[in-house]
Each structure stands twice: as structure tokens, then as C-alpha cells.
Amino acid sequence: MSAPLFSLRNVSVRFGGLHALQGFSMDVAAGSIHALIGPNGAGKSTVFNCVSRFYTPSEGEILFEGRSLLELPPHRVAGLGIARTFQNIELCRSLTVLENVLIGMTPHVRGYFPFAPGRRRAAAERMAVAEAEALLERTGLAALRDAPAEQLDFGNQKKLDLARALAAKPRLLLLDEPAAGLRNREIAALDALLVALARERGITIVLVEHVMQLVMAVADRITVLNFGQKIAEGTGAEVRNDPRVIEAYLGQGAYA
Amino acid sequence: MYGSPSLARLAPLLALLVLGAVLPPLVPQYFLYLGNLLMMYAVLALGLDLLLGWAGQFAFAHIAFFGVGVYATVLLQTKLGLPYVVAMPAAALLAGAIGLIIAIPATRLRAVYLALATFAFAEGAQWVFNSWDTMTGGADGIRISSPSLFGYAMGSDPKAFPVMTVLLAVVIAATLYLTKSKFGRSMCAIRESEHAASASGIDVRGTKILVFAISAVYAGIAGGMYTLFNSFANPEVFGFTQIVLVLSMIVVGGLGTLPGVLIGVVLLGLMPEIMRTAMRHLLVWQELVYGVILIVAMMYMPRGIWGLLPRRRRRLARA
Fold first, then answer.
1. Residue B295 CB partners (closer than 8 Å, separation 6+)
2. Subunit contact B5:A118, Cβ cutoff 8 A
3. What global pTM score does this model have?
């Protein structure tokens, strides 16, 4: 494996007496789809929240292209090319679909400082809107452009959460349970979309997911977490037959 | 939708300036006083709305910055002999600077803790206004000698009126410029989901601090406007009733909507006057009346009066 695009080295996170992550390490190869699985409460979302800099690990290092993320303030992470979705869908609920995508484009829209010259700022805004509309077209949300996010059905809210993340033009995309609550047909579409993103656009994807049908279909590599520790890592076939994984999911004695 | 203000959007501002120039000789002084009062409240409310309606921060230090604006505008003229055109912006910037200093610790707090901390700051400022006799005149208040502007003495409603329209127009233009932009979107994103905002590359804390300071500058400008048509101020002007009134204006009108806030300012800004003239016996109950209006508005029209209007028309107005 060439140098990993993204890695966690010996990361530990504690909440009081609870070890959410304990000496956890993981390397993600550029251009791969890497699934992170494990029972509820295993620490999967904690990994993402460390990358987003919502939590700071008590030990360890998180590297993206060899650069330490832990030295950056939270809002700088997106600028490096790391975007994410959220398990519970975090949208700006009263804003429109288009506005949510524009928020996702923040690292690329110029004129952050509100006192930028009006005309140049207006041109930057027009370009941003055109780009956001193109993204809505691709993700099948174009018809809902001006609908408030809160009026979308669950499947479309998930799509919008993903579209917002894609708007940042990420090189690393962290997806937190993108298939949860979706119907079979929608999962098949998601499957195709993830593969297209990774293979055609070269986006590296880390996928936290419980829907094994999706994980087994798309993941190049799978890391299994339990109680904050890595218990297995490998391809789908390797992980599926690992006794420790079976035990974690089904309980002791299940494989005997 | 976003970008630089179009001519069509600026037309109402030009109309405001024309009214400012034409009305004073034609309209009874009392109505000009009401106009001045409403324009001052509009600036105060638009400033609080940036913080509360746009960025979603429940902060109540606003009225203290209004006080800083009034006292500093007066004192910079009387103690340092500065002209109004210098004293007023300087006072607004002073309010902004204090806002910035307050914001640095305050933006670490959320929701009810932020509300309590900023409320405590407002009470503290009230205490300073009451106690610093040599500067503020204490509880007896401070006399405002009519400022002069390029040789024209202010201090009366007809003379202040055109200046007030200019200041309000500038503040409205600034509000449009600030909100119809990436900065406006950043404020909304912070209000709706700090996690999504942060993961999208928005500097949540930095934006909050900036909004806090800008909002304080608005309050400072409103303070400078107060001194144009009033001859006296005491700490009661910056009390709890006032912050409840301004809060009611933006909630009733429509949080985070410029036209809504202006509607709220007109409706609620006239309430104390109506109570004073038509319903004298209600005056002692005025805080209760605002409180009831605020609660009813929050229960039955959470998006305010502006939110009740049909969406299509609102879109047209925004476009």
C-alpha cells in the first residue's frame, strides 16, 4: 500500500471514565472506500467527531496527507478537502435546499469578509449559485431547489446532507450511516453513487455503516471497532469470518 | 438573490431619504417625534436581529451598548469638544469595541447561559450608568445639549428628522449588504446547526464574535440617534423594559427578516405612545402588555407577522 491519505495513530478519547476510543489506529489508502463497522457505541462516530475537531483526543495523532489535523481549528478542516455527513442529519432546516448546498461550498466561495467590494462579491455569488445548481442536478434535488430543508422527506434529507458535503469538493469524504433508514432501491442507488465517487472522481471514502449489504458491496477494506478498540481489519471476506467479529456482533459462544 | 444590492432594492431607501427632506415642514411635530423614535428603534432592532434572528444567539447586552452610544456621544462632545459627526461614529465604534471584548468570553456560552451572562452584563452597565455620577449624572440623568451638524443645531424633531432618515438608510443598506452574502449564510448556518456549519468550514466562534461586535455598533448608532431628538437621558432609558420592547419588535415582526423587523418596530414602537395617550390607565401595565404580546406571538406565529404573509410575495420582496 502506498502512503495512506488519511490515518489515525494510536488515538484515545475519554469521556469521564468511558474510553470511547483506546489506542485506535487506522490507515486509509487514497482512492479507496474504507468501511468502519462495529456494534452501537463502539466509537465509530467518535472517530469522525475527532476529525471534525469536535472532540480532541487525549492521545494520538490524526494525519491527512501527512499533516496533523489536531493542530487546526475546526473550520480549517473543510478547507483541506475533508467533508462529512452526520448520523442524525445536520441540515440548516429552515434554509432552502440551495442555501444548504451553498453553505457546503463555504471553503470555495470568495469574499468571506463581509466588506469585500460589491461587484466582485456578486460575481463570486453568481458562480457559486450556478455551481450549486449543477450539483443539485447531479444529485437529483434540482426540483426541490427552493424548498426549505425541513420539508424534505427523509431520503431527500439524506441526499441533501450528502450534497452539502460534496459541495466542499472533498478529497476525503466521511459518511456516517448514509444507508440508515433508506429503502432497498435507495440503497442500490447509494451503492452506485459511492462507487462512482471513488472510482471516477477519485474521492477517498470512509464509511460508517450498519447496513452490511452496502458495506460488503462497496468497501475495499473494513475496520471493525468494538468498545473503542480495533478488533479486526481486512477485506470483506476476511472480516466476515473473523471469530472476534462474530463474537462482537452476536455475543460469546455464537461461533462455537 | 445574493450579491450587490440592485437599484430596485435601493428604491425604498431613496424614498426614505425623500420623505426625510420633504416631511418636516408639512407634518405636525408630534408625528415627526414618533418618526424619529421609530427610526431609532429600527436601528436598535436591526442590530439585535443580526445577533438573535440571524446568528441565533440569545444575548441581551444590546441595551447596554445603546447606553454606551448615548453617553459616549454626549460626553465626547461636552468633555472633548468633538463635533457630532465625529463623536457619534466614535461612540458607535466604542460600543462595538466593548461588544467585541464581551463577545470573546460570551461566545463560549450557549443558549440560556449566554442569555444570563449578557443579561448580567446589561445589569452591570445599568449600575455603572447609575453610579458614575461625574460622567453620566447618575440616576438624575444627563442633559443633552442639542448637537450641531455642519452649523445646523439639532435637538428639535423637525431638524433631526432628515438626519435620522439618512442614518436609518445607511443602516438598512449595511444590513442588506451583510446579510445577502456568504456572511449572512454563515450566520444562518450557525443558528441552525453549529456542527454542520463547522464541518462546512465556517469559523463558528469568529463569526459569532464579529456579529456580536457589529450588533453593538448598531446599538451605538441608535444611541447617537437618541441624542439628536432628546434633551435628556437617565439610566431608565436603558432598562429591562426597553430590551423587552426591542425583543418583542423582532419576534412579533419576524426574526431574521428585514421587512418583518421594520413592521414589528412600527407596531410595537407605537404601543407606548398609544398607551400614553389613548389608554392612560394601561400605562402602569405596559411591561405586562409586552410580555403577553411576546408570549402570544411566540406561541401562535413563531415566524412573526412577516412569516404569515404568503411565501410568493415574500420572495418577490426579497428578489
1. none
2. yes
3. 0.87
Please report the DSSP string for A144-204 in residue order: GTTSBGGGS-HHHHHHHHHHHHHHT--SEEEEESTTTT--HHHHHHHHHHHHHHHHTS--E
Shared-domain flag, residues B47 and B58 = yes
| Strand-pair category, A221-226 with A204-208 | unpaired
Cell numbers placing A204: 477517498
Q: How many CB pairs under 8 A join A and B?
A: 109
Residues B180 and B280 in one domain: no
Q: How many domains does chain B have?
A: 2
Contact B4 A168 (CB under 8 A): no
d(CA A234, CA A222): 5
Interface test with B, best of A51, A56, A89, A92 (most B CBs within 10 A): A92
- What's the average model confidence in pLDDT over A128-145? 91
Q: Is the ipTM of this complex over 0.95?
A: no
Query: Which of B217, B238, B259 is the endpoint of a domain?
Result: B238
Q: B222, B238, B254: which is the final residue of a domain? A: B238
Backbone conformation region of residue A197, classed left if phi is above 0, alpha if psi is from -120 to 50, else beta = alpha
Tell me if B17 is assigned to some domain: yes
* Residue B209 maps to a domain: yes
Cβ atoms within 10 Å, residue B133: 10
Report helix angle B286-300 to B240-253, nearest 10.
30
**How many Å apart are CA A81 and CA A72, to the nearest integer?**
13
pLDDT tens readout for residues B42-98: 999 999 999 999 999 988 899 999 999 999 999 999 889 888 999 999 999 999 999
Mark yes or no for CB contact B196/A75 under 8 Å: no
* A233 closest CA partner among A25, A63, A87, A2: A25
Q: Let me know whether B234 and B246 are in one domain.
A: no
3-state DSSP call for residue A67?
strand
B210: exposed, middle or buried (Cβ count in 10 Å: 0-12, 13-18, 19+): buried
- What residues form DSSP beta bridges with B142? B233
Are B228 and B255 within one domain? no
Same domain (yes/no): B105, B195: yes
Angle between helices B62-78 and B240-253 (to 10 degrees): 120
Please tell me the predicted confidence (pLDDT) of residue B71: 94
Among B199, B192, B2, residue whose Cα is nearest residue A168: B199
Give domain status of residue B1, yes or no: no
Given the DSSP bridges, would you call strands B152-153 and B148-149 parallel, antiparallel or unpaired? antiparallel
- Per the structure, the complete domain to which residue B186 belongs is given by 7-238
